Amino acid sequence: MTDVKLRSRVEVERGLFMAESYEVISRAMDAGMAPRSFLMSEKWLAKFAPLYERFPEVPVFVGAEALIEQLTGFHLHRGALAAMQRPELPAVADLLGGARTVAVLEDIVDHTNVGAMFRSAAALGVDAVLVTPQCADPLYRRSIRVSMGTVFQVPWTRIPAWPGEGIELLHEAGFDVLALALSDGASPLDQVDLGPERKVALVLGAEGHGLKPATLRTVDEHVVIPMAGGVDSLNVAAASAVVFWQRRAMLG
User: Fold this and answer.
1) Closest by alpha carbon to 222, among 174, 176, 167?
2) According to the model, what pLDDT value does residue 179 have?
3) Considering the entire predicted model, what is its pTM?
């Protein structure tokens, strides 16, 4: 539970993910996710009964809080963990079919940022999210928790190859691909046409080195959020919220 790389490999191989807290587990179930098992201390049995009773065939493991903390590596103060069946992700082309606003998360390795970006996407009308092969797992426990379960609400999938094949698929689906980048000649966000006549894919990259040079060469347009106070950029999660809001505002 405490080794991110190990968990990322094992969970994907075994087709599962971990959900934590009543609200997150409930949202996962409402989105059609099936639990494999529950883990909690005895004092939480009554609160979580409406959830695990929906699946009487699924085991509920109960243990002392000290033992659970030893097993998981952290204090389970949100009540319970559920091991959930990992859903089969849709093909990129299928996901893009009915979408007009898409976010592309390029190699975002911080799980907190991934979760926050999904939450902004859900709140601000993004139709779908694409994550690149090296992007952190949206179904990692921390990503799910920070997103408040909206990773189950916003359709998403992982792009097989990026940027080449991914941008080609976006173009084939009629999207203009816009990169958020601190590059020379980038258009200020408030001067970019994000109106309803355009299908837009907004590409956001990892903090530090930013987007890949190959991505910057291939996209249709570079966009920058105007800054004040001597600040050159925002945290990528904050930047995503700004650009998603601008797109929503221009849709009318």
Assistant:
1) 176
2) 97
3) 0.90
E strand intervals along the chain: 16-20, 35-40, 60-62, 80-85, 101-106, 128-131, 156-158, 176-180, 187-188, 200-205, 221-224
pLDDT given at position 74: 75
pLDDT tens figures, 24-60:
999 999 999 999 999 999 999 999 999 999 999 999 9
**Exposure of 125 in the CB half-sphere (CA atoms within 13 A):** 15
Pick from 209, 38, 79, 69: which is nearest to 134 by CA?
A: 209
Other beta carbons within 10 angstroms of residue 37's beta carbon come to 15
Question: What is the DSSP annotation of 138-174?
Answer: TTSHHHHHHTTTGGGTS-EEE-SSTTHHHHHHHHHTT
